[in-house]
Amino acid sequence: MGEKMTVAELQKTANEIRKGIIKATHAAKSGHPGGSLSSADMFAYLYFEEMNIDPENPKMEDRDRFVLSKGHVAPGLYSTLAERGFFPKEDLLTLRHIDSYLQGHPDMKKIPGVDMSSGSLGQGISAAVGMALAAKLKGKDYRTYTLLGDGEIQEGQVWEAAMSAGYRKLDNLVVIVDNNGLQIDGKIDDVCSPYPIDAKFEAFNFNVINIDGHNFDEIADALKKAKECKGKPTAIIMKTVKGKGVSFMENQVGWHGSAPNDEQCEQALNELEKVGC
Hints:
Elements: H1 7-28, H2 33-50, E1 65-68, H3 74-84, H4 123-138, E2 144-149, H5 156-167, E3 173-179, E4 182-183, E5 186-187, H6 188-192, H7 197-203, E6 207-212, H8 216-228, E7 234-239, H9 262-275
Parallel strand pairs: 1-2, 2-3, 3-7, 6-7
Antiparallel strand pairs: 4-5
Helix pairs in contact: 1-2, 1-3, 1-9, 2-3, 2-8, 4-5
């Protein structure tokens, strides 16, 4: 992508992604803002700094792949893709509308830049493992990234995929867990605790890195270490704040799958506008 972005530029980009999330879910009157907002910093780094992708050629054969395993966080992915130039930003306002290509979950057949349709929790990581394995079998250098929710890893299929990735030494795979601590039914450790997350991935032969998912220096360092690690897939466990960037949404489980009304949308955008100054 040429010259590296500064932390300030990345923060501004993540802030624009957050604005898109709020506008899209408000226009849809539904959607999942909480986990989209907590993932925005990682989205910004992956799509504007880390991944080899081309909005002009979304199906480029040697592109890096990304799978949104927690597919309900589509507003975050869509806002990122729009910000990166895969499709017009104004299309975000059609989220979940009849006849819109921006459905409630990502559709690889209709949305430029989406590498895998997802939504059924636990399945995305399996597809990502398949992509990473395909690259190995074909002798290709592209890398595969997948983002999971911390509630999502309660799904058994996640660990079947992890077992396969570790066994096959897929060092071209990066599994990112958004550890914001909340899922639709409450705190993850009250529903069905997946802790300790890092030890579990280590047991499946992963290189594990714990980071603050809102610190761009830590994100950059973790992804650099993932590239340098040979013979093991990498799991990045990022501690985040659900609803990050919008004061009344932060750490509130009710915003897992609720859309802001007119007044809340205005307040959220005002707060994000001030951050961007």
